[in-house]
Amino acid sequence: MSLIFASMCNPVHKHKIPGAVGAGDLQQWERIDILDLWRSVCVWMMLLYHLLWDLSHFELLPASLPLHPVLRAYALMGAGGFILLSGLCAPLCRSWVRTGLALLAAAAAVRAVSSLAGQSVLFGALHLLGCCRLLYGLLRRQLSPLLCREGAPLLCLGLFAAAGWLCARTRVPVLWLYPLGLRAPDFSSADYFPLLPWGFLFLCGAGLNGCLESPRLAPLLRRHFSPALTFCGRHSLAIYLLHQPVLYALCLGISRLRA
Q1: Less Cβ around it within 10 Å: N or C end of the chain?
Q2: What is the domain count for the chain?
Q3: For residue 256, what is the enclosing H or E element?
Q4: 125 falls within a domain
Q5: Which helix (H) or strand (E) holds 17?
């Protein structure tokens, strides 16, 4: 298995903090540290899971450990956190096309490197986030009024669960529908996050973006955290692209020292 989680491009999350009006009624725009902290937590979850995976690959841990249901749920929680946060931040991004294309370029690089390692990544999390950013940018005028309605995030969450249940039980006789979550019986991908159901989780996050305008959240949104806590969140894409080769080399070295 290759990369179960994904990061997202790091758009500068500068957002008008509710109630933050300075001298001369100038609107103050700040980077939201709590979002970087959220992403940092997801990054550390990803690093821990991939470390366990690589250690098991070199037989330093039981091979079945990463496939344990608890750890699989842990991995999907981390991935879901990334995707939900990407949707939450999508309305803050000023260039959906540039961000989407950057993510798809990173996805192509991951796919190429993974193929050299003998693994196939056909539609991983970076593919998903890149496509979601592009589609959101193209359809934003149509989506925004719908996502702003009361209960829209909850509806998206329900559709996410329903689509996940349906796609897990559906197989099709063609190969090219896998980006939509419709897989052939012999389909295999080391990292797989199709548009259905995960796109609905992205939309759920986009629907929650309005919460950032709530005055009740202003103290939390204004709060600054130590750069050490937010560093991984600010550089999540670079860490995502580089962490697996580093962890793989580290585990390989440990394995050879023990041989």
Answers
A1: C
A2: 1
A3: helix 236-258
A4: yes
A5: strand 14-21
State phi, psi for 30 to the nearest 5 degrees.
-135, 155
- SS3 label, residue 73: helix
pLDDT above 90 covers a percentage of the chain that reads 61
pTM, 2 dp: 0.85
Task: Compute the CA torsion angle 204, 140, 83, 123 (nearest 10 deg).
Answer: 120
Mean pLDDT over the full length of the chain: 86
What letter would DSSP give residue 103? H
Nearest to 199 by CA among 121, 150, 147: 147
Question: Model confidence at 237, in pLDDT bands (50, 70, 90)?
Answer: confident
- The sign one gets for the Cα dihedral 101, 235, 233, 13 is negative
Q: pLDDT (tens digit, 9 = 90+) per residue, 110-149?
A: 888 888 767 788 999 999 999 999 999 999 999 999 999 9
Give me the domain span that covers residue 160.
Answer: 14-258
Q: Residue 25 region, left (φ>0) first, then alpha (ψ -120 to 50), else beta?
A: left
- Per the listing, tokens 């992403």 go with 39
